[in-house]
# Entry
Amino acid sequence: MSQVGMVSIVVGLVAVGMRLPQAVAPAASLRWLRKMARSGGRTRALGALMAAFGATMVWAGGSEDTTLATVLTVAGWGILGLSVPALIVFPTSFRALVEWFYPESAPGRETFLQMRGVFGVVVGAFLVWFGWQAL
# Structure
């Protein structure tokens, strides 16, 4: 069993699970994101989960010399580089970014979230497929 394949499948399933609600119900997912960003404790908990997820991706990607392993390593370092400072150390900056990117009265934001959700579902499905091929 390939570590890269297993982690890629899990990352793909998580990506599909996170982005499918945005594709189906963008307004509800936006309310959830704004609710999550209101509290520093919730934001830090999300950041800790993402940091563990990114570290797992870096660990698995470092075990092989394939393109999928390189993608996992780069994405893992990106998640670590964004989640630790923004979500754990400075959660108020994350709250400000959420307020700036997703204001209450922005026209077209639901269409943007829907398109982002569809794109995330497609990318997640590809990760699952490539992970299955790597096993």
Q: What stands out?
A: The radius of gyration is 16 Å. The longest helix spans residues 109-134. The CA atoms of residues 58 and 73 lie 4 Å apart.
